[in-house]
Each structure stands twice: as structure tokens, then as C-alpha cells.
């Protein structure tokens, strides 16, 4: 498993979304490492530099990979976060830790642009169809279709380097890994009943203009978490950590500091 391990101090683990790689977290890696944190940012199975032979990768498999990496690195306690699919993998990781009676290891939870809902019937069909489409067409057309949903229009105009980075991540994603993850997400369970059992500090972040995981879903998620807090990042869509790095980093750093108690 490819990963970055930067800085020293209490550990923060950040999981990227689909169809990206660990470079989507580099602004946060640099900020938190400079603030005295150890930041572990992996490439998920089938993404970036981490290989996979899966034809279907459920969220629980990703979660097992994350815990195997943290065990190998002797990381006992950590703040766990993810964006979009990465947030769902964070929830799957917490579930797996509960099964192992080790959920005490999670000292805080970040859910950015993510949803705890299960996939509905239409979504199952759409994800499976998209997986087949990627394998037949490649990533370039998909990236072109998705870029206006990932970034707000103002972000695309004002941040051309960010738009190029997002497009590059999408077009560079291995086809087999992306398709396997889509099929796995079509099978995802309902994490909403478990939100009440996540008793550590939890931060839910959403972009003001996110149409993939809209603000009402984020608001409901934060309300269901016993120590949940909602942050809406103005002027952003599905990638607030890249569209408004300063606001996102300020919010994340403050949250991580609240997890030290």
C-alpha cells in the first residue's frame, strides 16, 4: 500500500475519495504536519500507486487495508477522516474496530462531502453501469463529465491549477480499481444507525454548492453524531479541501486540536 507519512506527533489519517489519490490531501498534510501532527495519507486499493486485482472492492475491504497499515506502522490512536468515498470508508473502519472492540483507538472523526446512507436501487444500477462504462471507455470522458460536479463553477474559473490537478487525478486512476470500487460502493450498508455510537468529536464538512452530498445530508449526519459539528464551506462543491484550502485547513486544524483531550 502506497502512503505518505509526514510530520511527528499525534496521528491523523486521511482517506481520499473516488476517483482520486492521496495527492488530494497534500494541502492538509502539509498544514497539519507543520502544526505538529503525524499525517498518514494512503492510496486506497486500486488507486494511485496501490495495486489491486479486485473486480469488486466493498468498503469493508478498504477498511481492513487501513487497519492493516496502521497496525504495521504501530499506530495505536488516531483521528480518522475521509472525503466522499473516503468518509464512507472511515465509517466502515470504525465499524470494523467496534467488531474488534478497538473503537477506542479513534480519537476523532472527519466526514467531508460524505453520506452515511445506503445506495438505493437506482444508485446500484447507475454505479454498476458506470463501472462497465469506465472499463469500455476509459477515464477521460468520465473525468470531463464529473469535473463540473466536483468543483464549483467559480472554482474552475478562479483556480485553473486546482482544476488541472483534479482532472489529472481522475484521468490517472486505474480503470480496474475505479470499477471495482464503484461495484463495492453499490453494496454499501446503511451507516446511519451507527452514528449515535460514534461518541468521539466528529466534524462534518460540506461544500455550499455540493450536489453529490448536499448540505441537508451533512446537516442530518452532524445532528446524529453525539459530538458532531457541521461546517459549510462557502463557494465550494464536492472538494472543499482543494477549492478553499485556507478555510478547510483552519477548520480541520482547530477540530484536530479538540480531539487531544
Describe the structure.
One of its GO terms (molecular function) is hydrolase activity. This is Alpha/beta fold hydrolase. InterPro entries: AB_hydrolase_1, AB_hydrolase_fold, AB_hydrolase_sf, Epox_hydrolase-like. Keywords: Hydrolase. It comes from Prauserella halophila. This protein is an alpha/beta fold and 261 residues long. It has one domain: Rossmann fold, CATH 3.40.50. Helices cover 48% and strands 15% of the residues. The chain contains 11 helices and 7 strands. It has a 7-stranded mixed β-sheet, with helices on both faces. Helix 2 packs across helix 3 and helix 5 crosses helix 7. The longest helix is centred in the middle third of the chain and has 17 residues. It is globular. The model has no long low-confidence stretch (mean pLDDT 97).
Which terms would index this structure?
alpha/beta; globular; 261 residues; Rossmann fold; seven-stranded mixed β-sheet; 7 strands; AB_hydrolase_1; 11 helices; 48% helix
Concise overview:
With 261 residues, this protein is of the alpha/beta class. The chain contains 11 helices and 7 strands.
Number of domains: 1
Backbone structural class: alpha/beta
- Summarize the main sheet: 7 strands, mixed
β-strand percent reads 5-15%
N- and C-termini, Cα separation: 31 Å
Which fold name corresponds to the CATH topology?
Rossmann fold
Q: How many whole angstroms does the radius of gyration measure? A: 17 Å
Task: Count all strands and give the number.
Answer: 7
Mean pLDDT: 97
Order of helices and strands: EEHEHEHEHHHHHEHEHH
Question: What is the count of DSSP helices, taking H or I runs of 4+ residues?
Answer: 11
In what order do the strands lie side by side in the largest sheet?
1-3-2-4-5-6-7
Q: What is the CATH class designation? A: Alpha Beta
| Sequence stretches where pLDDT stays below 50 over 5 or more residues | none
Pfam family, one: Abhydrolase_6
GO molecular function: hydrolase activity
Protein name: Alpha/beta fold hydrolase
Keywords: Hydrolase
Amino acid at each position: 500500500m502506497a502512503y505518505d507519512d509526514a510530520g511527528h506527533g499525534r496521528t491523523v489519517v486521511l482517506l481520499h475519495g473516488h476517483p482520486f489519490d492521496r495527492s488530494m490531501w497534500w494541502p492538509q498534510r502539509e498544514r497539519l504536519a507543520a502544526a505538529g501532527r503525524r499525517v498518514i495519507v494512503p492510496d486506497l486499493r486500486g488507486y494511485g500507486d496501490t495495486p489491486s486485482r479486485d473486480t469488486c472492492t466493498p468498503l469493508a475491504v478498504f477498511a481492513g487495508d487501513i487497519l492493516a497499515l496502521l497496525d504495521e506502522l504501530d499506530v495505536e490512536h488516531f483521528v480518522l477522516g475521509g472525503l466522499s468515498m473516503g468518509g464512507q470508508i472511515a465509517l466502515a473502519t470504525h465499524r470494523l474496530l467496534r467488531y474488534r472492540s478497538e473503537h477506542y483507538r479513534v480519537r476523532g472523526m472527519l466526514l467531508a462531502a460524505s453520506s452515511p446512507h445506503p445506495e438505493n436501487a437506482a444508485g446500484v444500477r447507475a454505479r454498476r453501469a458506470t463501472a462497465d462504462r469506465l472499463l469500455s471507455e476509459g477515464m477521460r470522458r468520465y473525468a470531463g463529465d464529473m469535473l463540473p460536479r466536483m468543483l464549483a463553477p467559480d472554482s474552475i474559473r478562479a483556480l485553473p491549477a486546482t482544476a488541472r490537478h483534479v482532472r489529472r487525478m481522475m484521468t490517472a486512476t486505474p480503470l480496474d480499481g475505479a470499477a471495482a470500487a464503484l461495484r463495492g460502493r453499490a453494496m454499501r450498508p446503511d451507516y446511519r444507525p451507527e452514528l449515535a455510537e460514534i461518541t468521539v468529536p466528529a466534524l462534518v464538512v460540506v461544500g455550499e454548492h455540493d450536489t453529490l452530498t448536499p448540505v441537508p445530508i451533512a446537516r442530518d449526519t452532524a445532528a446524529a453524531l453525539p459530538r458532531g459539528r457541521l461546517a459549510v464551506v462557502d463557494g465550494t462543491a464536492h472538494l472543499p479541501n482543494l477549492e478553499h484550502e485556507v478555510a478547510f485547513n483552519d477548520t480541520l486544524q482547530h477540530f484536530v486540536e479538540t480531539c487531544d483531550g
